[in-house]
Amino acid sequence: MTRLTALRQLPQSKLFRPGDVFVLFGELFGRGYANGLINEARQAGMEIIGMTVGRRDENNRLRPLNAEELAAAEANLGGKIINVPLMAGFDQDAPEGEPTPTDLLAALSLKTWQDDKLDWAHIEKCRQIGVARFQAGVAEAMAQLDQLIADGRNAFFAHTMAGGIPKAKVFLAIANRVYKGQGERFVSSQTLLDSDLGKLILQNFDEVTANTFQHLIDGSAALRRRLEAAGGQVRYTAYGYHGTEILIDGEYQWQTYTNYTQGYAKMRLENVARAAWEQGVKATVFNCPEIRTNSSDIFVGVELPLLALLRALKRENGGAWAESQLRSCAALLQDGHSLDEVLAKIDALNDSAVMRGFRDFNAWPMPNSPELADTMIGASDAIVAMHQDRKALITDHLSALVIEASGALMFGEAAAPAGPVLWLSHDIIARQLNAAHG
Ligand SMILES: NC(=O)c1ccc[n+]([C@@H]2O[C@H](COP(=O)([O-])OP(=O)(O)OC[C@H]3O[C@@H](n4cnc5c(N)ncnc54)[C@H](O)[C@@H]3O)[C@@H](O)[C@H]2O)c1
């Protein structure tokens, strides 16, 4: 049984100082959550080191970045990148000369995928190869990292990896129906999970989203022991998702985006942190609010809860700065539309019987339904249509604020973390923002 353990106090401790090392375990994208932590690490004067997932050559083999790609990635990160490919998952791994799981999926068609069967003995061989490849990559990357961190330093490992959707044409069409489909085009997420295709995807999610955190903690054990023996401290954070408390009817209430197919992997990620914590390793999964990023854009409607942050910003001691944020958001709407109208839509959505039915923490992650797709996608489309420009949405503005606040909260809390799993709800996000800008 999981209990919601929310961070309620702004972090007060400080640990990291100039010369300490911040390691990003995953790549950095423009709108990604990791930018918040990187900004904090930079402000603290830490040295920043990143990893890469690598790229694929013309024969689909994983390779390190070439000189040009490496230079671009290092410029983007503002730090050195350890050039060892750390692509997780096993969707493109196989014994030499045999088909990969992605190859197997090529045989599936839109008509037959629900009944098509996969060769699980073969897939298990592929999985083991993928895991061994990733662990070997981590070992090599950690050996290189070991040379870069001197005794006496503290180290902060930030895990950001999530994903694992296989690059199979048939799945693109199915994903469009599961996450964006309405009416005749709707496909239930449960139908996907009941199929062999869905089972394969869940396994791959586990590898990319959860088990990589375990490999990071295990693979850095020798480095951690060396630094700790010299008086340094080592911290691990990861980004989780397990719903968020937002203002509904004037109270902070837990709600979730549905169907969050990665939810099983995210609960596994939480368990990785809990198990490490019991061994004395300070590893914390921060369950973060819904925002719009490269990774979340596929889930239409995932951004809706974020709009409730407009109210939390006012509620949590919002002053002139909060008012200015609301004005900036209002300015993105077309003439004739107002924030009140947007919020009224969100209230009606949250009040609907459909959405209420999904506010069941213990049943998470629930499968979606045709009614949910209609209600949620309908609300999302209607709110987007109130904007002047579909590429400049209120939820873009708010996403950037959440990235800033979550970075500060995670960075601060990691100094003296309260536990292995902490939710960052809209209350603490708003309080952090108002405190930082007040
Ligand atoms: N966007 C949201 O609403 C939201 C909410 C809560 C938590 N999160 C989590 O935040 C983290 C960062 O996601 P984001 O939304 O900022 O998007 P992002 O696209 O910026 O980050 C995704 C990360 O996953 C890595 N990745 C993807 N596939 C991989 C693979 N096969 N092997 C190794 N690494 C892989 C990428 O390199 C990147 O670092 C993720 O763990 C995500 O689940 C996101």
How would you portray this structure in words?
With 438 residues, the chain is of the alpha/beta class. 47% of the residues lie in helices and 12% in strands. The strands form 3 sheets. It has a 7-stranded parallel sheet with strand order 5-2-1-6-7-10-11, with helices on both faces. Helix 4 packs parallel to helix 7, helix 10 (309-315) packs across helix 16 and helix 12 (339-351) runs antiparallel to helix 14 (370-385). It is globular. The model has no long low-confidence stretch (mean pLDDT 97). The structure holds nicotinamide-adenine-dinucleotide. Nicotinamide-adenine-dinucleotide binds next to loops.
Which descriptors would you attach to this protein?
alpha/beta; 438 residues; binds nicotinamide-adenine-dinucleotide; 16 helices; two-stranded antiparallel ribbon
